[in-house]
Amino acid sequence: MQLFVNDLTVIDFSYLCRDRGVVGESWIVDVILSGDLNAESMVLDFGIVKKQIKAIIDDAVDHKLLLPVADNHLIISDSERDNHVYVDFYPQQLASIHLQSPQCAFAEIPDEQITESAVTRYLQAVIKAQLPENVKGIELTLRPEAIDGFYYHYTHGLKKHDGNCQRIAHGHRSKINLYENNIRSLSLEKQWCNRWQDIYLATDSDAISQQQVELSKRGLQDLTADHQCFSYYAPQGRFDIAIKDNLEVVDCDSTVELLADYIARQLKAERPDNDYKVVAFEGVGKGAIGNV
């Protein structure tokens, strides 16, 4: 017997890619459970599926930076801070990326690349270990939102957030709708999605010097003069990142509300006589609207 739940949850995360650097992503999760009927004549109660399995998935990968631990471009080491980890990553075409974060901010995926199939295998193993004995199998489908138009991948962190959004390298795959004088502008949408493709969005007030950043010894040695460093303390611990390519520093926190306002202000500065409406998405099915 099989039980299925479509659109069980959406996982928002970032991952390290040897070709693209740090990439924000959002995947919708569908699940099928196979097994014998229990005493309630169910494979598993829908309430348990929607609550327990969703919680397992969220805890395993949501709002984390996924690390392809079999990739020889990646080095993971223990930080001098308790329960913190150093990450040093050397993409093929981009400058190196260096981080320090609490261990809970990372998920180690035992593959060379972060793909839907690799994350599926990882999650199936994590979930199966926590299911009742009558559940014999689990099938997950991880899929991006079908977007008829332009979209971008961004990574960021929110130091003021009490939850997992505080992690300095988590992200989203997002679409955007831009209106100029109440008329939707596909050319502006394309322009911004190209600008923010695989972007890391840092807040200017989080910037620190290379002398202040906490990284591994190797990471510190490999910093170039063009690497920019950002750091903050949040409830889960201290977060540091040093990055050079695919970076934009914004003059606000990177909440979706303020990013919508940031884009609107940038557009207004370019064409002051026009009015703009920005519908910015944060992953799937949620976002904020900015008007100037």
Which helices and strands appear, and what pairs or packs with what?
Blueprint: E1 2-17, E2 21-35, H1 46-61, E3 65-68, E4 74-78, E5 84-89, E6 97-102, E7 106-109, H2 116-128, E8 135-143, E9 151-156, E10 170-180, E11 183-184, H3 186-195, E12 199-203, E13 207-208, H4 217-221, E14 228-234, E15 237-243, E16 247-250, H5 256-270, E17 276-281, E18 287-291
Parallel strand pairs: 1-3, 3-7, 9-12, 12-16
Antiparallel strand pairs: 1-2, 2-8, 4-5, 5-6, 6-15, 9-10, 10-11, 10-17, 13-14, 14-15, 17-18
Descriptive notes:
The protein is of the alpha+beta class. The protein has a single domain (2-173, 205-249), classed as Tetrahydropterin Synthase, Chain A, CATH 3.30.479. It is built from 5 helices and 18 strands. The protein has helices at 46-61, 116-128, 186-195, 217-221, 256-270; strands at 2-17, 21-35, 65-68, 74-78, 84-89, 97-102, 106-109, 135-143, 151-156, 170-180, 183-184, 199-203, 207-208, 228-234, 237-243, 247-250, 276-281, 287-291. Strands 9, 10, 11, 12, 16, 17 and 18 form a 7-stranded mixed beta sheet that branches. Strands 4-5-6-15-14-13 form a 6-stranded antiparallel beta sheet, with no helix packed on it. Strands 7-3-1-2-8 form a 5-stranded mixed beta sheet. A hairpin with a 5-residue loop joins strand 17 (276-281) and strand 18 (287-291). The chain is globular and about 65 Å long. The model has no long low-confidence stretch (mean pLDDT 93). It catalyses: 7,8-dihydroneopterin 3'-triphosphate + H2O = 6-carboxy-5,6,7,8-tetrahydropterin + triphosphate + acetaldehyde + 2 H(+). It holds the Pfam family PTPS. It is an enzyme of class 4 (lyase). It comes from Thalassotalea mangrovi. Its EC number is 4.1.2.50.
